[in-house]
Design goal:
mainly beta; OB fold (Dihydrolipoamide Acetyltransferase, E2P); 6-stranded antiparallel beta sheet
Amino acid sequence: MSLSVKGTLKQKLEVEQGRSKAGKEWKSQSFVLNTGAQYNPDVCFKLFGEDKIQLIENVNDGDELEVAFNLSSREWNGKWFTSADAWKINKVGGSSENTETVDDSEVPVFENNQTEEDDLPF
């Protein structure tokens, strides 16, 4: 399941590292995004691996971000744990070379929110 959310970076947590049972080293870093929602506005995301951790290196507290992430749940000892694993982070606002704009004159307008391919009766 892939989702995205916008918000303000509230806090970057310390990088965690260790060694797996197979002997491979790993690193992860978590960060907290304030979504501005009325209830439960703070969401903690995890970045796993050196390449993912680099996504947040040049981001500072207070920056507006859009985070793409996957939700996953797993059971351990009869309890369920859910994680939000971030895989893409973009700064929102300001000028960016990666920002695309759409010319509204090229976007077709359809009545009743239907597209040309939409032939469903509802």
